[in-house]
Amino acid sequence: MTRVADDPHHAEVPLTLEGAPPKTLGVLDQGALWANLAVSLLGFSGALLLLNPLGDAPLSLAAALTATVVGSLIGTTMVGLAAIPGTQTGRPAMVLLRGLFGARLSYVPSVLNIIQMIGWGAFELWVISQGAMAIFGDAVPYAVWVVAAGVLTVAMTIWPLGAVRVLRRYVTIAVIVALVWYAVDFLSKAPPHTGGDWSAFAPAVDYVIALSVSWVPIAADFARHSRSSRAAFTGVVGGYTLAQVACLGLGVYAVAMAGAAAVTADGTAVFGPFVAAPLGALFFAVLVLRETDQSFANVYSTTVSLQNLMPRVDRRVISVVIGVVTTAIALVVDVTSYGAFLGLIGAVFVPMFAVLAVDYFLLGGRTRWNTEEDAPARWSMLVPWALGFAAYWVTTGTPTVEAWDRIWLPLREAVRQPWMNGALGAAIVAVVVTLAIGGLRRGSRDGSRRGSRQ
């Protein structure tokens, strides 16, 4: 008789970093996880920026949908590439950075990731509660919804691979049915989208890229349990792209029905058309329940990031503590005001994983990647990361913290480019500088070998 502990259908993440990660997730598991992560309750309101990213040059419907497909493919390819080293090494994202920066230097991005993931987790609990209140009104207090969502989030984090399997078997199907139901209803009711052109196509693509690559810091956390690199990459690119295109496409009609002005003033106004549809409350409840995969992913990523600092601490203990902290923040802090700060911290991860991808795939890193606790410091890799971080703020047009934005304003005005998002600018600079450092390192080694033969 097969014991439950040995059954791959019941295998779970090891309790500490010392345990070997089970390789149980196939392409459908990965695809279902990433498809669900691509569907967000407030993601529907993102159609506002998709349709008019510059504020004065609206896109046609064809241009907006094309930008969604192109941007999603580019962004998810970046996320998929960040997932592959996790599959090949069996290490979560922040532990992978030991191979890039060294063990001690990897603590810096780990702490930043912990801060941002706790913040995003609290924000998701707020979104879930707002979605539930859109259905039930004030009959159930906000705090009750936050605590309930927090408890469910912690339970999913304690059994993360079980949660992914539930998403594949049950939740994804329910979400597809809900989205199709709303699409049929909205297409028959929403006013037609007319006018617009292709002039702001490039910034619209960059906006969609930014939506996708925001998940780069957690890609390896789940991909390390994938059966193959191909399954991890295909699941990310296929699942996330299809769902994000559907989400933003549906958002175009939801925003039209709710009113652009109302959604601009309050992002939760986009919930109205969903609840008002026939059987809308039922299907919107499906989307609200599904939103817990967002809080789950954030809390789980916080847990495994902390394990980079405390590799022998039981992840279940960490998950409970982080779940309590995240829930408390959602209860007492205005999490909507935290978004600008989260954007500032999040800017570090796009150039960082661009550096990782170049070093790992193009400069031979996979043959020497050291993720042990004594991995030596690699100070040179801080250079492309820092320059990519700077490039993000030179090229972005997204406001964050006013005092911080003021620092970069002179450089932005000197560059004067309205067509590139910070995510793409940061990645390009980080890639070019990393390749240059790799070329210098190779040239130095070749020179040393020639000198030794003479």
List how many beta strands DSSP finds: 0
Give the radius of gyration: 22 Å
Task: Give the CATH class of the domain at 22-332.
Answer: Mainly Alpha
Put simply, the count of helices is: 20
Pfam families: Transp_cyt_pur
Organism: Nonomuraea longicatena
Keywords: Membrane, Transmembrane, Transmembrane helix
InterPro entries: CodB, Pur-cyt_permease
Describe this structure in words.
The protein contains 20 helices and no strands. With 454 residues, the chain is an all-alpha fold. The chain has a domain at 22-332: Hydantoin permease. Helix 5 runs antiparallel to helix 14. Mean pLDDT is 90; it is low at 1-6.
Distinctive features:
454 residues, mainly alpha, Hydantoin permease, disordered N terminus, transmembrane, membrane, Allantoin permease
